Amino acid sequence: MKPNKLFLYYPTANDATFPAYATNVSPARTFAIGSLPGAPAGTTTQLRDRIFDVVSTDYCEFNVQVLPPTTTNPDALGAPPARRNMVAIGADTDPSLFGIAEAVDTGDADVIDHARVFGGSYGVFCSAELSGANNTLDRWALGIGGTAAHEAGHNYGLSHSAVVHTGEDAFIHHIMPAGPSMPCTNRVGERRHFSDQDFGILANNVGLTLQSLANWDFVNPNSATASRLRMEVLSLSTTLTPVSTYTGSLSPWNPPSVVASGTRTFKGTSYHRYFVTWQSAKGWASPNQPGSIAGQVRGAEQFHVGTHFAEENILNTTTQVVIADATLLDAGGSALPLHPRVPTFDTGTLSADGNFILGLANLAAANLVLRNWRGFVLPRPAHIDSMLFDPTGGVKLFDNQQEPITPWRQLQLPTAMELPAGSTDKPGEARFVLGNLLKDGHNVRIKFRGQVTDATAGAQEVNPDVKGALATDPFPGASVFLEGDLVEPNALQWDADKKTFVTKDLVTHVFLQVAGKRAKPVDGILIGLLRGKVVCANLNTRQSVSVQANTDGSFDCEKAGLVSLHGERVQVSQVGLVNTQLPAVQVGGMDIAKVTCTNLRSRQSVSFKPEVSTNALDCVKAGLGVEQQSTLQITQIGTVR
């Protein structure tokens, strides 16, 4: 299940228990369609359901579960989810706002967040765009739902942004621009989406549902017609569900079925075994033979399939779904003798030296070759229907809302690489190095400046950024897309033109996508400490780096060479000469479990756990005695968030 819960809360009575974090926020006002100024025809339930559709679509690719509309305050539940983001939607209006979030929660450090949406403001500020034939449930839902997604985005760490990546559409089509810059025509007239920059920050803060996705251009090497394709898939998960299955015109079948079948060992570890079978016939058109037959693949005919497997633990990115074999079956379910070739692959690893490495493996008893592979770093995952050759022979990637994707950059990959024969016990292996975090850096790396923005027009703006906080995207990007040939040289296969078996290259074209890794920089600033030296250590990998603080006291462990991923344990220690009565340090990027302050002159030491990890860590307030020119050491231990 997705760990981050997003509630859309519609009070049926004014709720004074809702936190009063800003003017006009509490009580959370009731929501009823008849209370909206210039309300559309329809019921409250219908409008709430349409708003849910808007918000759930906006967050569907993230580890965020948008829960069905509720009339119960989520804070009042008997066992509320630990990580929850609550957006209270009322029919009331505000003098200048459509909504306001509790804060820009940089890094999504706070596990419990609140936001308010003033649904009635749409009937006031966008009355012209919601009149006559345009006064519909769908247009109201686009407006209110877009604001709900916007305010929830603040609580997940997004600032206001009008930054547009090369090739991206205009910012007025995006969710997070400030209120005054967003015309009502766009608010209520279209389904907006997160920008490339904001998508990357969200992906790093809350994670993506996608971990890996693959499509294949196969060929039937047999003379006999195949009526089914069966893949043997291994997983550590006790459940395996195909989602986002390709069902376009190049596939002979509807989505596959999955049957569990005991266990099998892969590299010394016992995996659950599943047979994933495409067999439900549908009409299709092969790219290399005319007259394709529904649900059938004739000898030497090319076809395309693809799927994304969802496991029970979507946060488990350390293990892979292993594709052990692909077998073509005849109409009676008997296996045909010749198999198309398919590689298995992992979800990529980010090593301590900064290299992002994708591993591929061959479990077949035949030597294979990887040829003509290309890679692209993407700002958002590509939809499965775009992971194929178009009629011109090119690949045009688009996202789940059909928006075209412009890559951050293209990767340089070897033109050919051997993938030797192997088995499940000892697979043949190859690897692609897809970038280095310490050399290439993040595509999105924003140091917030404390600007404030969020009104309808001309009014004082709200939701300030956390000054000095750092936001980044995953590495190498939100996702990485690769495509290339998997070749079995001199393979026996059917030639439809010659109507005989020949020996030549058997080629599977692979379209592969994996999510980037949630690399999170740990940074900070020394306050009232001179000649500061900082030691950053990853306690999981045992990597350690030292860096001299900048003249303004700031430091950045990632820029100093530390690789730290979401959830890993880190220790950061600062040493400096006291030149103020209140020396402190402020650290970002980690949830601090323990702080230890030591006066190296007097040897006095105090320890404490901060209430808020991002606040300044004040050793004097914690009880440490310090004096001018004494040397102070402050050490934090915690997890990367």
Parts with pLDDT < 50 across at least 5 consecutive residues = 312-318, 451-464
- Total number of β-strand segments? 33
What is the number of independent domains? Answer: 3
The largest pleated sheet is described as: 8 strands, antiparallel
Number of helices: 6
What fraction of the residues are assigned to beta strands by DSSP?
Answer: 35-45%
Helix proportion: under 10%
Structural class: mainly beta
Characterize the overall form. globular
Distance between the termini: 19 Å
Radius of gyration: 28 Å
Integer average pLDDT = 92
Chain-wise SSE layout:
Layout lengths: L3 E6 L34 H15 L5 E3 L17 E7 L8 E3 L10 E7 L2 H5 L11 H19 L28 H6 L6 H11 L5 E8 L8 E8 L4 E4 L13 E10 L2 E10 L23 E10 L10 E8 L14 E2 L3 E2 L4 E8 L5 E11 L30 E3 L4 E4 L8 E9 H4 L4 E3 L22 E3 L2 E21 L4 E18 L5 E5 L1 E10 L4 E6 L5 E3 L12 E10 L5 E5 L1 E10 L5 E4 L8 E2 L12 E10 L1
Parallel strand pairs: 1-2, 1-3, 3-5
Antiparallel strand pairs: 4-5, 6-11, 6-23, 7-10, 7-12, 8-11, 9-10, 13-15, 14-15, 15-19, 16-17, 16-18, 16-22, 20-21, 22-23, 24-27, 24-29, 25-26, 25-28, 28-33, 29-32, 30-31, 30-33
Helix pairs in contact: 1-3
Can you describe this structure in just a few lines?
This protein has helices spanning 44-58, 121-125, 137-155, 184-189, 196-206, 437-440, and strands at residues 4-9, 64-66, 84-90, 99-101, 112-118, 212-219, 228-235, 240-243, 257-266, 269-278, 302-311, 322-329, 344-345, 349-350, 355-362, 368-378, 409-411, 416-419, 428-436, 445-447, 470-472, 475-495, 500-517, 523-527, 529-538, 543-548, 554-556, 569-578, 584-588, 590-599, 605-608, 617-618, 631-640. With 641 residues, it is mainly β.
